[in-house]
Amino acid sequence: MREDPSGRGRHGDIPFGNRHLTDDRDVFEHNAWDNMPWDEEMEREAKEMVERQKTAKVSEEKGRSLLEEPANYWDAFYANHTNKFFMDRNWLLKEFPELDTQQSETSMRALEVGCGVGNTTFPILDLDKDKKLFLYSCDFSPKAVEVLKGSEKFDPSRCTAFVWDITQSPPPDAPPPSTLDLVICVYVLSAIEPKKLHQTLLILRSLLKPGGSLLLKDYGRYDMAQLRFKGDRLIDDNLYCRGDGTLVYFFDSDELDERLREAGFEKEANVVDRRLIVNRAKKVKMQRVWLQAKYRRPL
Ligand SMILES: C[S@@+](CC[C@H](N)C(=O)[O-])C[C@H]1O[C@@H](n2cnc3c(N)ncnc32)[C@H](O)[C@@H]1O
Questions:
Q1: Were both Cys, which of 7, 222, 224, 288 would link to 46 (CB 3.0–4.6 Å)?
Q2: What share of the chain is helix, strand, coil (3-state, %, to 5)?
Q3: In a domain, 267, yes or no
Q4: How many angstroms does the Cα of residue 140 sit away from the middle of ligand 1?
Q5: How sure is the predictor about 15, in pLDDT bands with cuts at 50, 70 and 90?
Q6: For all residues of the chain together, what is the average pLDDT?
Q7: Can you tell me the distance from the alpha carbon of 192 to that of 88, in angstroms, rounded to the nearest whole number?
């Protein structure tokens, strides 16, 4: 299942939803509840479900072949769905006020990695009312980049889009080292095999100016999407393949923090966004867990 989580309201200094469940009897009164703390029992049940998945992992051979050429699966995904699958990430400004270029006195340069067909790229360009931003957008799926560039919203005077596997050295189309104000990662680091993450983060950090920020939104550990996986999906701890062969990893926030620090980033924010989604007709409760983080390349 893929969908577009949207953050609304305030949660500490990070904007998320503000509909809080104070009385359990009201749970089916609304479709969603924000900032839902987990109790020990929920945590235990989630761990048990993940333990059970370990008894039905993918075969070693299948796991190896899925990890070999991950771009092929995403390319087939976009050949099949083009721009009809993901919704535009219209919550971006609420979670990342850094994207409000009106607050900046100078021009800005940003890179969106794993841009797909532009569901983050185009909202970012829409936010840039004064046209102060130049945006680089890249994806390792040639089909995704082709669809993005074919959109009537694509404006080559404000944005460039190119094919790049961010686990590999930057191609000539990439921005030069130390030139970016922002790197934006929306549901992309979870698509990378964990053993390639360190190298990827080093590369992204090298493109940021000192003081530049990496903005990240991704799946959190024990999100409903993780717990729902049945047999023949688990490749390695917290790393799964979907039915179409695309990869997804579910980060723990402390682990993400460690990985970012190891790559030389400094924390600005790292928040777990927990939301209870309710199917009122079926009386079913589903827990969503997302991570939102901002890390800086030190000055
Ligand atoms: C869940 S989609 C998110 C797309 C987009 N960020 C958005 O907001 O809709 C993940 C994207 O990451 C891309 N991706 C995964 N691994 C990548 C890699 N190593 N290098 C570049 N792009 C990658 C996929 O092709 C896919 O478009």
A1: 222
A2: 35, 25, 40
A3: yes
A4: 7
A5: low
A6: 91
A7: 22
Locate the ligand 1 atom nearest the alpha carbon of residue 112 and give its number: 6
For residue 74, which atom of ligand 1 is closest to its CA? 25
| Residue 281, domain member (yes or no) | yes
Nearest CA to 271 out of 281, 259, 284, 256 is that of 256
The closest residue, in CA terms, to atom 20 on ligand 1 is 165
DSSP 53-103: HGGGPPPHHHHHHHHH-HHHHHHHHHHHHTTSSSPP-TTHHHH-GGG-GGG
Give the contacts of 105 (CB within 8 A, at least 6 positions apart): none
State which ligand 1 atom lies nearest to the alpha carbon of 86: 9
Q: Is residue 245 predicted with pLDDT exceeding 90?
A: yes
- Judge whether 19 lies within some domain: no
pLDDT tens digit sequence for 91-135:
999 999 999 999 888 999 999 999 999 999 999 999 999 999 999
Q: Is residue 22 included in any domain, yes or no?
A: no
Whether 238 and 221 have beta carbons less than 8 Å apart is answered as yes
Side chain identity, residue 189 = L
> With left for phi above 0 and alpha for psi between -120 and 50, is residue 40 left, alpha or beta?
alpha
| Cα 141 to ligand 1 centroid, rounded to whole Å | 8
Structural domains in the chain (count):
1
Q: Give 16's pLDDT tier (boundaries 50, 70, 90).
A: low
CATH number of the domain residue 178 falls in = 3.40.50.150
Domain around 187: 28-296
